[in-house]
Design brief:
The chain is of the alpha/beta class. Helix content is about 25%, strand content about 25%. It is built from six helices and eleven strands. α2 links the parallel β4 and β5 (about 80-85). α2 (about 70-80) crosses α5 (about 195-200) and α3 packs across α4. It is globular, with a radius of gyration of 21 Å. The termini are far apart. The chain binds adenosine monophosphate.
């Protein structure tokens, strides 16, 4: 079975971003960029499914400008077999555009499974996997905590996904093709080794663009304003527990 893993280049999770003075967005000039952490988990899951013999090819895909090739090389070093860079230039590719590009790729590649991250940590949209499943008209399981392939080689192949839901875990069965989005506790991604980084340089990386895929990537949403969160007022010290309880009851600031 073939798996496609879409990976996004985002501001590294350790970076504390700052809002631009004109409030049009956050300043990403000269900040460290990395693969979206949920996408590392998605790649790791695909690699584990391959190691278990359920998957025979992993294709990593990224949509964006030239630098997204870095995250594709990272996915190849983690264990993807080949990569596709969908060059969208400097256009801000929003979830519906990414989902539409992935749908067009699915028509060419015919994967049995997509594993995406639950959300990209830059815009926190949490939309692409759901939109993709909608466009494909196929089964989906978001927020995957555990993935189990049943009867992989047969026509009756299905995937059981345990999902983190409010107050517990829910297990669902999906027929293929299907879309899964990876949650934080699905696995712990491996470290990339130097030999694998070197091997990744030789793995194939194909380039396509939105026009070749027949997809209109024009943004549909306009960001009106981005603001820093309100500053928290400073704390106070109280002499004893009784005063604390009184203040908690009556002081709206606490
Ligand atoms: P989002 O809906 O933006 O929160 O993103 C959810 C997931 O969709 C990410 O974790 C990626 O797996 C995938 N994704 C989003 N944007 C891109 C992109 N530009 N290129 C490739 N995959 C993407």
């Amino acid at each position: 079975m073939k798996v496609i893993v879409p990976v996004k280049r985002v501001v590294d999770f350790n970076v504390k971003v700052r809002v631009k003075a004109d409030e049009t967005g956050v300043d990403i000039a000269h900040v460290k960029m990395s693969m979206n952490p949920f996408d590392e988990i998605a790649v790791e899951e695909a690699v584990r499914l391959k190691e278990a013999g359920h998957v025979n090819e992993i294709v990593a895909v990224s949509c964006g400008a030239t630098p997204v090739q870095e995250v594709l090389r990272h996915a190849l070093a983690l264990g993807a077999d080949r990569a596709i860079w969908v060059n969208t230039g400097e256009v801000d590719v929003q979830p519906l555009a990414v989902a539409s590009l992935l749908k067009a790729l699915a028509d060419r590649e015919k994967p049995a499974l997509f594993i995406l991250g639950k959300q990209a940590i830059d815009d926190d949209a949490n939309q692409t996997g759901q939109m993709l499943a909608g466009l494909l008209g196929c089964a989906q399981a978001s927020c995957a905590f555990r993935v189990q392939v049943i009867n992989a080689a047969s026509d009756a192949a299905r995937i059981e996904v345990t999902r983190e839901v409010d107050g517990g875990l829910e297990t669902v069965a999906l027929t293929l093709p299907a879309v899964i989005t990876a949650d934080l506790r699905l696995n712990e991604p491996r470290y990339v080794t130097l030999p694998n980084i070197i091997k990744a340089k030789k793995k194939p990386l194909e380039t396509l663009n939105a026009t070749e895929l027949g997809v209109d990537i024009t943004p549909r949403l306009q960001i009106l304003k981005v603001k820093e969160p309100a500053k928290r007022p400073g704390g106070i010290k109280v002499q004893d527990v009784n005063t604390l309880i009184e203040r908690l009851k009556h002081d709206s600031v606490l």
